[in-house]
Amino acid sequence: MMENQSLCDDNMEEAEYILLDLDDLPCEIYIPPNAPYVLSGLDTLNPILTIDGKIKLIGQYDETIGTCLVFYESDTPPVVHEEAGPSEANLCPGRRTLDPKQTKSKQVKPVTQLQNILKFRLLENNETEDAREKPKED
């Protein structure tokens, strides 16, 4: 039984997460929300990202310095206070109330850590996808 567990562990691949950085794109370029995209050539030095079949971008890997963490943010439900006990101010005993001064809060959970960031820029007309270099084999 232990041997099978060991074999499965050896065959499992470790997932690697990469951040796709589009911050260097000109502000005139509009990328529609939920636009379909194709990311090709992840095993090359310069992967190609095609967005909505129209926008072609070329990427370059940058290694992160230190630890780069990715977090997930979600809204948390507001805190509900339940009135308990008699009070002159408590006109409706047993009623639940929301604090009007309470600000919206967010819940943040870690997702993963990154080793690489893939920065993209526009693919120029004189550049071709075939000009991409393959990484050197060790």
TrEMBL record:
Pfam families: TFIIIC_sub6. GO terms for biological process: transcription by RNA polymerase III. One of its GO terms (cellular component) is transcription factor TFIIIC complex. InterPro entries: GTF3C6-like, TFIIIC_triple_barrel. Residues 82-106 are annotated as: Disordered. Residues 13-123 form the Transcription factor TFIIIC triple barrel domain. This is Transcription factor TFIIIC triple barrel domain-containing protein. It comes from Solanum tuberosum. The gene is LOC102585379.
